[in-house]
Amino acid sequence: MNIIFLLFFGKIKKTYAYYNLSGGKAFLTNPVLFEKQEHTIKIDMKIVEKALNFKAENYMPEIAVDKEDEIKAEKFLKESKIDKYACIVPATTNKLKEWKIENFEKIIEFISKKYKNYKILLIGGENDMAKIEKLKRENCILAINLNLRVLYEILKKSSLVIANDGGVMHLAWLSGTRTIAFWGPINLKLMKPLKNSIILHHKTEC
Predict the structure, then answer these.
(1) Cα(35)–Cα(93) distance, rounded to whole angstroms?
(2) Which listed residue, 24, 48, 113, 176, has the most CB atoms within 10 A of its CB?
(3) In the predicted model, what is the mean pLDDT of the chain?
(4) Which residues are registered as beta bridge partners of 183?
C-alpha cells in the first residue's frame, strides 16, 4: 500500500500496479487485481507489459556488464592466483534464512579434501567479516564488497556457488552457474531460482 500512496500523492498521470482485496484500487489510474501467486519476475513483467502494451518473449532478467567489468573480474582472479574455484556465501540479512556456520565449515573441509586443486572464494560484505574469518582456511580467498557487476562475472566463471538466500545467490543462478541455495521460511513459489539450482528449503528457521 505504501508505494501506491506515493504514486497517488506524487500526481503521476498514469499508474499501473497490483492491488488486492485489502485496498489500493482507488489510488491507481490503471489498477490490476492480484489474483494468482507466481514468481515475482513474471508478476513484475506483466505489469510492464500492460503499461507499455507489448508481450515479452522472455521474462528472464539479465545483468548488464561491460568490458571493464570483465577486465576487473579477470584481474581479481589473476592477482588472487585462482584457476578452478567454488564460491561460498555464508551470510544473509535475515537470520531466519541463514544456514548454520558450522555446516559451511563442513562443506569447506569436504571441498578441501576432495578437490585439492580448487580454491574457495568466501563472498560477503564488511558486516559479514566475523563469519567469513571463522571459515577462512589456507585454500580460501576473501571477496569482500566487490562491485556487483564484477561479482557477477566472477560467479559466472565459478564451478559452483553455495549460498544462503540473498542477492548474491540470485546473481549466481542468473549467471548460469550451478547453485546450491539454502532457504528459510519464505514462499518459494514467489522467489525461487528458476534455473541451474538445487534448493534446500526449511519452512522454519535454518
Answers:
(1) 29
(2) 24
(3) 89
(4) 201
